[in-house]
Amino acid sequence: MANLFPIITIRSSKPGPEGLIIAGVHGDEYEPILAVRQLIVELRDKIGKGSLTLVPVVNKGAFLAGARLGLDGLDLARTCPGKKGGSITEKVAHEISKLIRKADFLIDMHTGGNLFEISPLAGYMLHPNSEVLETQRGMAEAFNLPIIWGTSPLLEGRTLSVARDENVPAIYTEYLGGGFHPKGTEDLVAGCKNVLAYFGMLPFVRRDSKVTLKIEDNQPGSGHLQEMYPAPEEGIFEAAVALGQLVRQNELLGYICDYSNEKKIEVFARQEGKVFLIRAVPMTKKGDALAGILSAGNEIL
Question: pTM score, two decimals?
């Protein structure tokens, strides 16, 4: 089968880990795509040991459509491990899952795309294997974004689900969204290099830590961003809080108004914590995520 997505591998002459860095699982998340492209240029002949496989655009159809979903309407981040003979997204999921199973570690980079703004974070599943979990914690710390977030290992359909089942240490990143942010590309490139240094594949460069919050939440469903604060009705969403804001339980997060502005539904915080996700566009359908809060009770820093 011809490659469904571009694959670039940089090999060292010395044995070592086989790393995998991917972007463009969702087609409207551009900073990670540019970051991987930049890594391809910067890291040629620079890997000190092992090999590094880079996939700048996993979901080409979604990228060319400027959309989160594939051309068949499926979300690649809910379709892994896919099907060899399935629809286009299922085929892509099958091929990227094959790469993940062969890797010694995975970095999967995301943003909030067109619909959300998400505070920069590095996340991982709370893996039942303690060795894998500690490696993931080390990778997330090395990536050096402000938030580190460990969540339920029970979510399915994702690249991290495939990595979990194969005991491949894996992290994902989120970085803003709701528009293009050039600094995001810079920070993601630096983060990937930090993780490669963590595995001894690049020289270590001392940097001041940007980590300000560590959260681990093992509750079922934690980490599923699209299920946080679902809209009770369709309409126009007006946020009353900002990204990064600390909120109290029962504090107003925003309103959903009908199209004539005659009906207004208030949305309140269910817990105390930090707003790390906010809807970036007014349009909302019933069930769409409006906001996300990292609970103060789960902080480990």
Answer: 0.95
Residue 61 · residue 74 · CB < 8 Å: no
pLDDT tens, residue by residue, 167-206: 999 999 999 999 899 999 999 999 999 999 999 999 988 7
Query: 36 is written with which tokens?
Result: 């991987």
- Go through the domains of the chain in sequence order and give each one's CATH number: 8-216 (3.40.630.10), 228-298 (2.40.50.100)
How far is Cα 224 from Cα 155, in angstroms, rounded to an integer? 8
Count other Cβ atoms within 10 Å, centred on residue 65: 14
